[in-house]
């Protein structure tokens, strides 16, 4: 094992120096970002000075709460200034006024805070100030998180340099750099009581693990399934946190996790005769493809209809039509995903075609949901899927059809 790591490292001194320099810069950037953000959040509000009061108007179009909610945030606004007040559901349903008197305060460093009452305590002021600083520091924390994950990405390419081609290295790191940029430009808002920084962390982890998994699949490596298990865990957490895509969550829990383990075992049994790290792959017949398509259509209609009838509370969507559309698209994506999983298990080239479709459907969901960072992941899917399909096709052409059982 030690010899494997030694032999896998980058041997070119110039490239090695560049990679080590990049690792140092990313590490420093990540530490500095987290330090700056934490310092800002935990800074003292200092003296709070009352300025004046104003009437703010309630933004009802952002509200979509029902009895499943314990806390309901209501936004009041006056021009470019806003105040968010959290109510219990009982207080919320009895809230019939559309305006409120907001009391404006100013801290020593010029930060403006709003309260719904004038006699505020020092504790209230400090908590409000910290929340304000947390919101303002979101881009800083996203930068820290993304550079940390980018650091891990470069580290993997450095430690296993000889296991990847130049194209694979460039592709992998390019996707992660783009994800880093997007995480700063498009910070994620809080949802269902979970801070946007945590949601962005999940997005970045999902991107990192998925593209690493995709890269290993294209290389016909059975170790992709070990990474895939981590992918499934992250995506289950995302579904729970955002309270959405339950078809995908159930499919992940009861299909993907078991199939990953079984696929690892199956792929291990079918190693290439010449290269131990490769797995022998093949392709489907025409009638088998037709049966798969019919099964996907049936799954989409049945699962989509069932889930659209469930009343699941989430503040991730404010439009019922969009939410229903996402449910059906997600049902279709989960069906294609199941087909993809089975194709992978049986080592079929058609898994790449299924993944094309799945990536497209998930891209639509990401656009509807405003999850722009995850579009970088889909870009990675499309490019690597093309690469993987070509790579597997070349392998199949250069090898005789395997005359073994599916298992």
UniProtKB/TrEMBL annotation:
Recorded GO MF terms: nicotinamide riboside transmembrane transporter activity
Subcellular location: Cell membrane
Signal peptide (UniProt feature, chain positions): none
Coiled-coil ranges (or none): none
Superkingdom, taxonomy of origin: Bacteria
PANTHER family found in the cross-reference section: NICOTINAMIDE RIBOSIDE TRANSPORTER PNUC
UniProt name for this protein: Nicotinamide mononucleotide transporter
Organism in which the protein naturally occurs: Floccifex porci
